[in-house]
């Protein structure tokens, strides 16, 4: 297996990220991630750029002059204003942000589709996926990197079968999307929960206790004192995660944790953008109000440079 193929496997996991001892691992799934940047408008607007444009498009805007940014932003506003009444509402902005999120998912699927559809028939069979991803490494009983590829393959096969609605072990593009991004599909959410619990439940008793929950995010690694965020997570487990107060999270409690249904990030971001840009406070935005805040929505080469001067971290 090449490094690229192994990274593909890692991208399929519920969220399996190796972290430094004091880093926090976030297993919570929302809609496709708005941004991996910190949302801190006091420092910069990078989170908002990614959320509004999508991360790839935001990088393109970073290279533009302020004049070019404003011109392109004006054209985007025309697309967001779906009822063509000259105003952008919070609902229209939310729909646009969700569209940018979905584009990330489908672009990711397109990038991988050509690699796995070996016979170019517009479908991906389990055999095609298995052969490309694992190949001859399955025959090696003692791989140098120490990974158990057979166990990985079994886990992938289980997820593939779950995504494959008609059970023919051949995935359409929609089924392959469900395989790669199971958190996006209601019928796949149980497999996301199952994989997460398998990762964290070290004693295999079918539930996640407090130490397993903390151990998934943090390793003492010789540290005498826990960081404050670890203490906060302990409190979160007791007060909110363990809803029935029995000292552990069962399947439903784990699902509530990693697949929260009571918070919509796109809605929150849309509300934030309207609040920051609505000069006359009428609850909706004109093109002029949005373009006037172009640095919040899209940024540019010039604004990035200005932010660098403020932060003093580029020199």
From TrEMBL:
InterPro entries: EF-hand-dom_pair (IPR011992), EF_Hand_1_Ca_BS (IPR018247), EF_hand_dom (IPR002048). Keywords: Calcium, Endoplasmic reticulum, Glycoprotein, Golgi apparatus, Membrane, Metal-binding, Repeat, Sarcoplasmic reticulum, Secreted, Signal. GO terms for molecular function: calcium ion binding. It comes from the Eukaryota. One of its GO terms (cellular component) is melanosome. Residues 68-103, 104-139, 151-186, 188-223, 265-300 form the EF-hand domain. It is found in: Endoplasmic reticulum membrane; Golgi apparatus; Melanosome; Sarcoplasmic reticulum lumen. Residues 1-19 form the signal peptide. SMART domains: EFh. PROSITE patterns: EF_HAND_1, EF_HAND_2. Belongs to the CREC family. This is Calumenin. It comes from Chelonoidis abingdonii. The gene is CALU.
């Amino acid at each position: 297996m090449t490094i690229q193929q192994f990274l593909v496997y890692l991208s399929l996991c519920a969220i399996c990220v190796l972290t430094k001892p004091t880093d926090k691992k976030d297993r919570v799934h929302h809609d496709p991630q708005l941004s991996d940047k910190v949302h801190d408008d006091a420092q910069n607007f990078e989170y908002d750029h990614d959320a509004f444009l999508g991360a790839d498009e935001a990088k393109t805007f970073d290279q533009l002059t302020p004049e070019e940014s404003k011109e392109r932003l004006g054209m985007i506003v025309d697309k967001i204003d779906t009822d063509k009444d000259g105003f952008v509402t919070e609902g229209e902005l939310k729909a646009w942000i969700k569209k940018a999120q979905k584009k990330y998912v489908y672009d990711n699927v397109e990038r991988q589709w050509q690699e796995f559809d070996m016979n170019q028939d517009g479908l991906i069979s389990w055999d095609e996926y298995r052969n490309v991803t694992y190949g001859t490494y399955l025959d090696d009983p003692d791989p140098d990197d120490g990974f158990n590829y057979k166990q990985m393959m079994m886990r992938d096969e289980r997820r593939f079968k779950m995504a494959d609605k008609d059970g023919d072990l051949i995935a359409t593009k929609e089924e392959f999307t469900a395989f790669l991004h199971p958190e996006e599909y209601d019928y796949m959410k149980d497999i996301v929960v199952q994989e997460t619990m398998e990762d964290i439940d070290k004693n295999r008793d079918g539930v996640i206790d407090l130490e397993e929950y903390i151990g998934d995010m943090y390793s003492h690694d010789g540290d005498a004192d826990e960081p404050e965020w670890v203490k906060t997570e302990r409190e979160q487990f007791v007060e909110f995660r363990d809803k029935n107060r029995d000292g552990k999270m069962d399947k439903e409690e784990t699902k509530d944790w990693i697949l929260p249904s009571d918070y919509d990030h796109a809605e929150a971001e849309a509300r934030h953008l309207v609040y920051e840009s609505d000069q006359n406070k009428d609850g909706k935005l004109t093109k002029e109000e949005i373009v006037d805040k172009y640095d919040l929505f899209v940024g540019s080469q010039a604004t990035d440079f200005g932010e660098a001067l403020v932060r003093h971290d580029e020199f």
